[in-house]
Amino acid sequence: MKLIPPIRSLARACCLVCLLVPATVAAQQKVEVTNAWARATVPGQKVGGVYMDVRSPASARLVAASSPAAATAEIHHMRLENGVMKMSAVAGVDLPPGQTVKLAPGGYHVMLIDLKKPLATGDAVPVILTIEDDKKTRQTLEIKAEVRDVMGGKPAH
Q: DSSP secondary-structure letter at 33?
């Protein structure tokens, strides 16, 4: 059966849409952040930590962070080395597909450097995360981290 030109064009367009929709849906799947919190700081303290659980539906990497609450934000990792706890900035944190990666005290975390004011229990700290997928496409995700007391407990209500 021979299609007339307008119908042939429509058929091609429909085929193209059918091919692109799965790729678009996959690209729109979002990284999910839960349990975001920051430890309260004391007056004069210039750094603070932000912790969270991060889950990506596809292979990705947390590559950067920023916050209006601090001059700089970096991704850090703490580790025990020869009996000494060491902390250093890292280039990123891998997010394996479908797995929850915990950024927690004593491990990976977002370090806020040169805080503009103390982090007070009950406040919320905005943090912008930059996530990179396997194709090096970056997306940003803004979260709010609840500030908890110095010991990491939730504020009393």
A: E
- Pick from 73, 67, 74, 69: nearest CA to 127: 67
Do the beta carbons of residue 143 and residue 36 sit within 8 Å?
Answer: yes
Chunked mean pLDDT (size 10), the chain, 157 residues:
55 50 50 97 96 98 98 96 95 98 97 98 98 96 95 60
CA atoms within 13 A on the CB side of 110: 30
CATH of domain 31-148: 2.60.40.1890
In angstroms, rounded to a whole number, what is the distance separating the alpha carbons of residues 11 and 152? 59
Domain range list for the chain: 1-28, 31-148
Q: Which helix (H) or strand (E) holds 64?
A: strand 60-66
> What sections of the chain are H helices per DSSP?
5-28
Cα dihedral: 63, 78, 114, 156 (round 10)? 100
